[in-house]
Design brief:
Helix content is 24%, strand content 36%. The protein has 288 residues and is of the alpha+beta class. The protein folds into two domains: 13-131 and 274-279, Rossmann fold (3-Layer(aba) Sandwich), CATH 3.40.50; 143-153 and 190-272, Tumour Suppressor Smad4 (Sandwich), CATH 2.60.200. Helix 3 (51-59) crosses helix 4 (72-84).
């Protein structure tokens, strides 16, 4: 790990890109982050209105170190853009997590408070992290799960009708009354399985004739850690590899905060130490 380098005058040169979702959801945290960063570095602040302008601003950063103020989706967007530019290895990325979904940022070791995260940008050290890259040039920073959990695409689940979760209606009241008067019939929860072929470094771990419940993949210590749960065995199948291929019937998968699919085949390749993230000194991401 190494500390971010200042310019010739001793001040760090930052390009701070503030995601529009962060500005809408938590303007106070955005203001705090701007104050802390302005006090400790020479910072240029950019407020893009959408993903296209976000990409243009990032592409024109020059020698400034990019700092993203936003949630997990903003972090993923930034890493994906830098990966497509083949510029991830050139420097380090910093993040001040602001928004509703910041679990990924926290799991990587970034403080979730605006003050602590902004101070880590200024005083932290750069840690090289692994990256999973698929054959469509998509990236995974944290966990990959196949198939995607029900409702993971953001579609409303049960109780997610007009008015949103928690909204009351006459029908909600009637259903609650019926549930109190009628004894529910015991139900057995069905476990959905999928016919998938899973390979790790070309070795078949699970084939189409053994239905799969879930496949999870995550980077750990320079390798891709694979865990497969099948219908035929109570014990999971595990492996460590540099590439993982899943194929079979149409399936969807959740990579970090995004759901992709349906696809019939996909290969993920691990790139060890592919990108740098500024973290508090002495702090490692959880799971290491």
């Amino acid at each position: 790990m190494s500390a971010p380098e200042p310019d010739e005058n001793g001040a760090q040169q930052l390009l701070v890109v503030i995601d529009p979702v962060a500005r809408r959801t938590d303007g106070e945290s955005v203001r705090i982050a701007k104050d802390v960063l302005s006090a400790g570095a020479t910072a240029k602040f950019c407020l893009p209105d959408g993903p296209a302008e976000f990409a243009r601003v990032l592409a024109r950063r020059g020698s400034r170190r990019p700092v993203v103020v936003g949630d997990d989706r903003a972090l993923l967007r930034t890493v994906a853009l830098l990966h497509r530019e083949r510029d991830l290895s050139a420097g380090a990325l910093s993040l001040v997590p602001v928004g509703v979904s910041v679990d990924l940022a926290h799991s990587l070791g970034v403080p979730t408070g605006a003050v602590a995260a902004a101070r880590a940008v200024l005083d932290g050290v750069v840690r090289r992290l692994d990256l999973l890259v698929d054959d469509s040039d998509g990236v995974v920073l944290g966990d990959l799960r196949i198939p995607a959990p029900p409702g993971a695409d953001g579609q409303p689940g049960r109780g997610g009708g007009p008015g949103g979760p928690g909204g009351s209606s006459v029908w909600d009241t009637c259903r609650s009354l019926v549930r109190t008067l009628v004894k529910p019939v015991p139900q057995v929860l069905a476990v959905h399985t999928h016919r998938l072929r899973v390979e790790a470094d070309g070795v078949v771990l699970s084939d189409l004739d053994d239905p799969v419940e879930t496949v999870t993949v995550r980077s750990r210590g320079g390798r891709a850690e694979v865990v497969i749960r099948t219908r035929s065995s109570a014990e999971p199948i595990t492996a460590s590899a540099l590439s993982v291929t899943v194929s079979g019937a149409d399936f969807r998968y959740r990579a970090d905060a995004a759901v992709t699919g349906p696809v019939r085949t996909r290969t993920w390749t691990l790139q060890a130490g592919a990108w740098g993230l500024t973290l508090p000194a002495g702090l490692s991401p959880s799971g290491d």
